[in-house]
Amino acid sequence: MRQLAHMLDTRQATSREIVTRYLEQIAQQEPQLNAFITVDEEGALLQAEEADRRRAEGRALSPWDGIPIAVKDNISTAGLKTTCASRFLENYRPLFDATVVDNLRQAGLPIIGKTNLDEFAMGSSTEYSAYGVTRNPHDLSRVSGGSSGGSAAAVAAGEAPWALGTDTGGSIRQPASFCGVVGLKPTYGAVSRYGVVALAPSLDQVGPVATTVEDTAILFSLIAGPDRRDASSSEARPFQVPRWDEQFVTGLKIGVPEEFFGEGLDQEVEQAVRKCLAELESRGAVLVPISLATNEYAIDTYLTLVTAEASSCLARYDGVRYGTRVAAADSNTMFSKSRAAGFGSEVKRRIMLGTYVLSASHYEAYYEQAQKVRTLIKRDVLASFEEVDVVITPTTPTPAFRIGAKRNPLEMYLSDLFTAMANLSGIPAISVPCGKDSKGLPLGIQIMASHFQEELLFKVAYMVERGCL
Amino acid sequence: MTNFDTVIGLEIHVALLTESKFLCSCKTSFGAPPNSQCCPVCLGLPGTLPLINEKAVEYGAKAGLALGCEIHYFSRFDRKNYFYPDLPKAYQITQDAFPLCTNGFLEYYVDDQLFRTEITRIHLEEEAGKLIHSGQSIVDSEYSLVDYNRAGIPLIEIVTAPDIHHPKQARLFLEQLRLLMRYIGVSDTKMEEGSLRCDANISLKPKGSSVLGTKVEIKNLNSFRALERALEYEELRQSQVLSGGGVVRQESRTWDERAGKTMSMRSKGDAPDYRIFPEPDLPPLNLDPVWVELIAANVPELPLARLRRLERDYGLSRYDATFLVNYPEFCELFFQVAERGLGYEDVVNFLMGDYARLAREKGHLSAERISELLTLVDEGTISQGQAKEVLSSLFSSGLSPREIVQERGLEVVDDPGRLEPVIREVLAANPDLVRRLQDGETKLYSFFVGQVMRATQGKADPEVVHKLLRGELGK
Amino acid sequence: MIDRQDVIRMARLARLELSEAEIDQYQQDLAGFVSSGRKLQQVDVSAVEGTSHAVVVTHELRKDEVAESLPQDLVLSTGPDVSDGFFRVPRIVEEQE
Ligand SMILES: [Mg+2]
Ligand SMILES: [Zn+2]
Q1: What CATH class does A1-292+378-406+418-469 carry?
Q2: Are residues B324 and B238 both part of a single domain?
Q3: Any alpha helices (H) in A314-453, and if so which ranges?
Q4: pLDDT of residue B378
Q5: How far, in Å, CA of A91 to CA of A71, rounded?
Q6: Given C52, C76, C84, which is nearest B280 (Cβ)?
């Protein structure tokens, strides 16, 4: 990004030229990839021209003024369709910008389009989009991951230099890993959720996707910070985009949880991660075998909480104020028919599960139990950071799978096996590419740190980026 | 009725008098065009988040303090999920497991007997929108219109223990509660605008039994009278059902004002499943104890304490004191006027008389004007009758009572030298009546006093006239 | 065990009209979920408080200040059925739950 910024700064290129170049990429690749639901050619060019004018007048909003960005389509953009990949919101145009979108506009970033996702971010492959699957740029027969599959694929394919995604159980990191890009799930509360269409508010976070660690850090610096409109956002922690520092690795204590290297882990994934760890060790890091035993419960806990919260958050789609409306003689039937027509099968499945775990006779055994187990998981995770600085694991058990390979929903839910823990405990986690498998599919490594330790995460991520690629 | 004990519990929703809504910054004022006081948050648009209004929490705590509740520094918000067209998010943000206030009470008089009702809890929650039905009522409407201006206004829900035992008691409880809310200034409690709403639970049990009967919930109680009448109706209905060997169904009933009866709304085998869980968008409330102390320090004198003070320190009757307690503006005037050394009872009588009617129409006079007027009567400068005249012109003119007396030449004539000629004139004009009086028809005295008053345009002091008449006729 | 009636009851609570095939499908899914979640129920959580918020933040309350609302026409602009300044809905019937 520094190169693009430099070109703009020294007038070697205009924002209009840069945006046009990305639009050409989009035009060329979209027929195969389908990473975007909406491409806002006109809007992006208009914003680019404004950026060029600002630069010409010496009042650029930031070093990145005029560099375009893609935004996941569950993040509200005023006047620009925000569908959440759902039929229900097919024609919904928000009346306001999400705070993170506001942040992008403040920095002068033209929004080039809205990227594809699993409907309402429910999924791990972008196959559950009402607007078709997003294909993996490295192998068109494979998924791009999900739910931020569109954002990861767009960045990986050069359709956008960077993008915003959202991550509730792995939805930024898993597609980043599948597509060979960097993706950060920030600390819960580090980035405002205002205007981000909720899946599970106690787990959701917006985060950056980019091709390099530094770009990811830059984008994070643009969106991080407290927001008076989000009561769960945290006070500002000064975040500086860290510089690469070779000495940093010396004495760094890296926790390696055995539970993440067991059965079900693809051999090539394991080899790549181990190789990367060895590389870090050879440069002075200390590998500490640790245990995160509660990860055994992460998926079930996650699934219980996410479906419960989602069933409540998605209840507002009733056809009264916006979205799909199917005519009926009475209101209840209108609600039921509109929702049935507007939602896809995975959304319905999760609403059913969530309604079940919250219903009076199951609340205690399921929802309340899951909240308590969540406490144990959080304790387990935080305890490990008393021993080590960071924890490193594979991001996903396998590389990108084939489109249509996972027919069983429970199998699909296992995609979040290594990532859900960070959401449950609220800690930041980043996925960084760590090579490719024998088929040429990208592999990812996950680094986790304690609450608000994003700076540390990025420093370690630099090492991985430089040491393992 | 004699075979059963009635058990009543009330759930009262009070709209708080904040400037902005509970969870967003839209205005709360009543009567605006539909859907003109709405924003993305109170419309429940995707991605919006709630933000708690500090004033609503303050008012909730203040209500709790005034009702003798325990205020919980830690409380939490929950989601109550149900679908209804007036509920934008399809869940209500409320407090379920950890309410702001618990364990309070309210004391109030029913026919001179002091009653006490326990307040189980008070919690904060958001209001829903308003529905306007195309037909006469919800059931015979083909469609309904939704206005979300009201959606998101802060409410407190006050729940009593089931320890109210007759319909009238329920009404008096609610009246006292409303008065209390007005005293502490947290709500305008207008039942007709819906800023005070009451649902009642009522059940009957065999006399003396400790086992509660099946309760029926009554909704749509839009006035104090409706509350009392609906409970009376329901008490009778249930006792007839039970006496006839039937069973009361657990259900919600609605009060039909026109028909004067309750009607079944929905029968439910079990309670609706609201799937309540902790609100993930709002961190729990952790109130600063010092803040709560400051709120407590701002709770004014409450109705019952004031009643007792008026009886004890001012020697007022229960009737007079109750008038003042029920009308705080009058009470304020009473305190100010009484301070100026006038008789307490005279002051109350004055305030409760013609003054009350005029003040309601035209607004209050200042304490200064009132004291001056009462002093004029007290000194004997004007008569009671003249005082009435002065009073009505006080509301329209800018003059002081003394100035009005002067301008109109109002005064009491008690000088015999000025009155005697008038008396003689009157007597001379009615020789027949004078004879009848002298023959013993003494009630004619008042006729002659009246004639003299008339001849002096009411200025004569009637007592002096009486005395002079006796002297004249006794000759 | 999850029976058909459970599924129908959940669907009604969630206001989802399901086809017969969907009811069958979700009955299976719910059953799968319940059996896979059994492990979770065996975790000893005595004396453990639930976590609703992963990162505890101090709750900053909003001052009671009015901000501009949206103009009425914008509020109604997303509505599928609006009339005279209102959103319109068909007959409201109390649900038998
Ligand atoms: Mg309530
Ligand atoms: Zn609002």
Answers
A1: alpha beta
A2: no
A3: 331-342, 345-358, 369-387, 409-413, 420-425
A4: 83
A5: 17
A6: C52
Asked if A171 is an active-site residue, the reply is yes
Answer whether residue C2 shows pLDDT above 90: no
Phi first, then psi: what are they for B187, rounded to 5°? -155, 150
B383 with B438, same domain: the answer is no
The stretch B206-213 carries a mean pLDDT of 89
Report whether A99 contacts A109 (CB < 8 A).
Answer: no
**Rounded Cα distance, B19 and A202, in Å:** 30
Mean pLDDT of B15-43: 97
Q: B423 and B394, same structural domain?
A: no
Q: Which ligand approaches the C-alpha of residue C75 most closely?
A: 2
Question: B417 CB near a chain C CB, below 8 Å?
Answer: no
Residues 6 or more apart whose CB falls under 8 angstroms from that of A21 comprise none
**The residue to which tokens 């008076």 are assigned:** A228
Domain boundary among B230, B265, B294: B294
For residue C39, the 8-state DSSP code is H
Token pair belonging to B173: 């409880």
Helix (H) or strand (E) holding B393: helix B384-394
C97 pLDDT higher than 50: no
Q: Which domains does chain C have, with CATH numbers?
A: 1-43 (1.10.20)
> Is residue A356 a contact partner of residue C13, using CB atoms and an 8 Å limit?
no
Q: How confident is the model at residue B112 (pLDDT cuts 50, 70, 90)?
A: confident
C-alpha of residue B56 to centroid of ligand 2, in Å: 15
Domain count, chain B: 3
CA distance A146 to chain B (A): 20
DSSP, residue by residue, A263-304: TT--HHHHHHHHHHHHHHHHTT-EEEEE--GGGGGHHHHHHH
Same domain, B83 and B209: yes
CA B198 to chain centre: 15
Domain that holds residue B396: 303-408
Contact yes or no for A321 and B275 at CB 8 A: no
For the segment A151-188, what is each residue's pLDDT rounded down to a tens digit?
Answer: 999 999 999 999 999 999 999 999 999 999 999 999 99
Exposure string over A316-342, b if 16+ CB within 10 A, otherwise e: bbbbbbbbbbbebebbbbbbbbbbbeb
Q: How far apart are CA A295 and CA A422, in angstroms?
A: 10
Using the mean position of ligand 1's atoms as its centre, give its distance from the Cα of residue B125 in Å.
7
Q: What DSSP assignment string belongs to A206-225?
A: EEEEESSHHHHHHHHHHHBS
> Are B83 and B199 in a shared domain?
yes
Q: Which of A144, A147, A338, A450 is catalytic?
A: A147
Final residue belonging to a domain, choices B376, B408, B440: B408
Q: Which tokens go with A123?
A: 């999924």
* pLDDT-above-90 percentage for chain B: 64
B421 and B382 both lie in a single domain: no
- At residue A467 the predicted structure's pLDDT band, cuts being 50, 70 and 90, is confident
What average pLDDT is seen over chain A?
96
Who among B44, B49, B146 is closest to A231 (CB)? B49
Q: How many C-alpha atoms does A77 have within 13 Å on its Cβ side?
A: 27
What's the pLDDT tens digit per position in A348-404?
999 999 999 999 999 999 999 999 999 999 999 999 999 999 999 999 999 999 999
Say if residue B436 is in the same domain as residue B401. no
- Closest residue in C to B279 (Cα) is C52
Whether A77 has a pLDDT exceeding 90, the answer reads yes
Please say if A72 is a catalytic residue: yes
Same domain, yes or no: B73 and B196: yes
Does residue A459 register a pLDDT over 70? yes
Per-residue pLDDT, averaged over B272-293, amounts to 95
A229-284 per-position pLDDT tens digit: 999 998 767 788 998 887 888 999 999 999 999 888 999 999 999 999 999 999 99
Interface mutation vs chain A, best among B281, B282, B285, most A CBs within 10 Å: B281
